[in-house]
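We were asked to recover a plausible sequence for a given structure. The inputs and outputs are reproduced exactly as logged, with field labels preserved.

PROBLEM: sequence recovery
POSITIONS: 113
GIVEN STRUCTURE:
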């Protein structure tokens, strides 16, 4: 469960992170970085694809500057993974709501910008 988020700082299950994260069902991958900082490409999501979630919630940053590339959106759809991309504060709430509802959900969260 994501307990709190503010620019550059997130608390997940009692642990604080200060770099971008991927929240998988069994662990948190800290210091997640993309090939291009503010673009989300297919290659940036190897761990997510391996987890086979029903839903991927992408936090696009505090101000929403990170964008999901169209080919990434298409690839996720082909894999049967629903994509929800929104500013990180909203993405945290969405992730918690879906997790509480018992959904198989993963979050990829950009903490700044």
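RECOVERED SEQUENCE:
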């Amino acid at each position: 469960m994501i307990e709190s988020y503010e620019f550059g700082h997130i608390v997940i299950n009692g642990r604080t992170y200060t770099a971008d994260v991927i929240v998988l069902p069994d662990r948190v991958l800290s210091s997640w970085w993309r090939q291009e900082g503010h673009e989300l490409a297919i290659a940036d999501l190897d761990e997510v694809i391996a987890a086979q979630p029903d839903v991927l919630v992408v936090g696009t940053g505090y101000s929403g500057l990170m964008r999901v590339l169209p080919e990434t959106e298409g690839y996720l759809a082909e894999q049967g993974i629903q994509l929800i991309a929104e500013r990180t504060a909203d993405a945290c709430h969405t992730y918690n709501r879906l997790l509480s509802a018992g959904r198989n959900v993963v979050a990829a969260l950009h903490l700044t910008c």
